[in-house]
Design a protein that fits this description.
With about 140 residues, the chain is of the alpha+beta class. The protein has a domain of about 60 residues: SH3 type barrels (Roll). The chain contains three helices and five strands, in the order H-H-H-E-E-E-E-E. It has a five-stranded antiparallel beta sheet. The longest helix is centred in the middle third of the chain and has 20 residues. The protein starts with 13 loop residues before the first helix and ends in a 5-residue tail after the last strand.
């Protein structure tokens, strides 16, 4: 028993194809020359430029554009100042929170304190930075 195939081709049902819509992107083309890709590349470049400019206009970290950006937490200005005074062995005056003045040269520093080398006859001191009110170069006076 051999099964035979019906030689008539199947016709698609009209109602299945009638509901389908072809979705095409809406390009604003004045000519339909497919060999000329200049319009499409100009369109893409314009979109990329707009996207880049929108990225730069967005406020960062939730701040308003009219406000200035927050300065960095660590500027290294303090480190630079200490390094310069240490290298030149500049005589410094360090005024503590209670008003006491200490005279000497900064030998080294770290995150929490500085070491002050004083003249002979006076002990060298390690001073915690929170105890310092301000400091200045001895030859500058006040």
């Amino acid at each position: 028993m051999k099964e035979t195939i019906d030689p008539t081709p199947l016709q698609p049902e009209e109602e299945n194809f009638a509901n389908r819509k072809l979705i095409r992107p809406a390009f604003n083309r004045t000519d339909h020359n497919h060999g000329n890709h200049n319009h499409n590349s100009n369109y893409i470049q314009a979109v990329e430029r707009r996207d880049r400019s929108e990225r730069h206009e967005r406020p960062e970290r939730g701040f308003d554009r009219s406000r200035k950006a927050i300065p960095p937490e660590q500027t290294n200005a303090e480190n630079f100042y200490y390094q310069k005074q240490m290298q030149t062995r500049t005589p410094m005056v360090i005024v503590l929170q209670d008003g006491e003045e200490l005279h000497g040269v900064i030998e080294w520093y770290d995150k929490h304190c500085i070491k002050l080398t004083r003249e002979s006859g006076h002990p060298n001191l390690m001073i915690y930075k929170p105890a310092i009110k301000y400091m200045f170069k001895e030859d500058e006076g006040r």
